[in-house]
């Protein structure tokens, strides 16, 4: 039986503003298994950061139960903090006039990591995040990407089992973002449990084993990226260039199982057929057979992406949620 490192059960978090109450998180439930890379997606104001702060014990839940590695976040605060590392978006959080090595030593002391452990762990972490050659440079000269890599090293200095990454690649160039994604994937291979929030759907689709999508404080979808895409029902689109298309062939394609619509456009002397099918339908061979003996050129299939599903989900979310 799999062990869950994170358990969130019916989490509610309210804020008082003036004489009214704002519900930032509304009955959110999910679990994260040991060694899993789990994603929380959602637009600004969806409740992602509030959920993260509850997990990090910096906010108390209004109601519900939240535990990390079996420790309740409201009653076992010290135990949770000693076992969780976190990386928040942005490049703050370091002493810029200190070197990377000095910063890591400082945070290791705060976590009461023994000096004999620090002597091996800090160089290993600097090597792991690719900063060994720059470890004696002041952090003030680091790029944003380098600071984010140092953030990951800092979050691991006390060897936590659970790592929470809140938009770690935000504002970083594509090369730096790819390096951070590879570094994060490597942590799960080491057995770490990673909770990731991101606005980059391609990142979530490539990295997350499972995820939840939040909107206005509520979960509106959950599961693997493939499950979420299928649940939304966005059609697969296949484009086929042909010569000499006859009208009865289009009628035959429209009658195929799994086909939801067919459109035909003229492209110079050729025709471009756009066939939309149900997400799980594999109709290509049947479509080609229905075309008969027409000359077929380019064939391109566009599968729905997680971004397509995310946009559809968020746009459909009830407006009265809060």
From TrEMBL:
Pfam family, one: ABC_tran
GO function terms (MF aspect): ATP binding; ATP hydrolysis activity
GO cellular component, one term: plasma membrane
The protein's name: ABC-2 type transport system ATP-binding protein
Alphabetically ordered keywords of this record: Antibiotic resistance, ATP-binding, Nucleotide-binding, Transport
Protein origin, superkingdom: Bacteria
Species of provenance: Micromonospora sagamiensis
UniProt cross-references to InterPro entries, sorted A to Z: AAA+_ATPase, ABC_transporter-like_ATP-bd, ABC_transporter_ATP-binding, P-loop_NTPase
Main subcellular location of this protein, as a coarse class: membrane
Membrane topology: Peripheral membrane protein
